[in-house]
Amino acid sequence: MGKLTQYSAPTLSTEAQVDIEKWNRLPSASVVTRTVEQIQQRGIAVIRARGSESALETLKELIPPGSEIMSGASTTLLEIGYDEYVNRDKSRWNDLRSVIIAEADEKKRHELRRKSVTAEYFISGVNAIAQSGELVACDKSGSRVGAWAFAAKHLILVSGTNKIVPTLDDALRRVRDYAYPLENARAKRAYGVPSQIAKCVILANEDEEDRVTLILVDELLGY
To answer: What is the rounded CA–CA span in Å between residue 116 and residue 113?
Structure first.
């Protein structure tokens, strides 16, 4: 897996009381290949990455210098080193998250968050991937999934192959039984408040060419 953090699944699994053996394992190569084919048939580009370092390098290549970027809170992005890279090299991209964090006025900060879903490039993790090709994400506020459906000009998703499950029903079950309990534990540690499955998106088809790209990593990443 990528860099182990205080918010990684192995760190939080006992606290979250999740079945990590059931939901956090790598599928066979044939399953990954079939899943990629199904995703691509839904209008979503897929780039395979062997590991975290390769995933981060791919991300750098996809986003031109000077571009406006925004990212949703994501353990996967933390584990591939994205947050560390953005914080270290702010001059490469126009990072809207740093602008939001720097804003002291709560109302102005909220308005900036609302506008940030329309970023030129929005980077996000994924909660589950069905072998039939649907990609699933849920969050509490909608600050991440708001970008998925329409708002972001370019949507770049990063996911480990451990997110792949047999069916869409299994994908939704993975969110409920695995991703949410872990995210709830993370939110309590990070923000002091619980999370919630409040707003969900199922990305089943994308009609706009080259809008959505999935970087699919052959590692255990995120939840």
So the answer is: 5
Q: What is the pLDDT of residue 88?
A: 84
Does any domain span residue 4? no
Q: Say what the pLDDT of residue 91 is.
A: 64
pLDDT at 89: 65
CATH code of the domain in which 90 resides: 3.40.50.10420
Show the tokens assigned to 184: 């709830």
What is the structure's pLDDT at 186? 96
Domain assignment of residue 185, given as a range: 9-217
Using CA atoms, how far apart are residues 30 and 205, in angstroms rounded to an integer? 23
Beta-sheet strand order (sheet of 68-71):
45-49, 212-217, 154-160, 121-125, 68-71, 94-95
Cα–Cα dist 80/4, whole Å = 10
Contact, 113 vs 143, CB < 8 A? yes
Q: Where are the alpha helices (DSSP H) in the chain?
A: 9-16, 20-23, 29-41, 52-62, 75-80, 82-88, 96-102, 106-116, 145-146, 168-174, 180-191
Question: What is the mean pLDDT, run by run of 10 residues, along the chain of 223 residues?
Answer: 91 96 97 98 98 97 95 95 86 89 92 95 98 97 94 98 98 98 96 95 97 98 97
Q: Is residue 139 domain-resident?
A: yes
Single-letter amino acid code for the residue at 182: L
Characterise 82 by phi-psi region: left (phi > 0), alpha (psi -120 to 50), beta (else): alpha
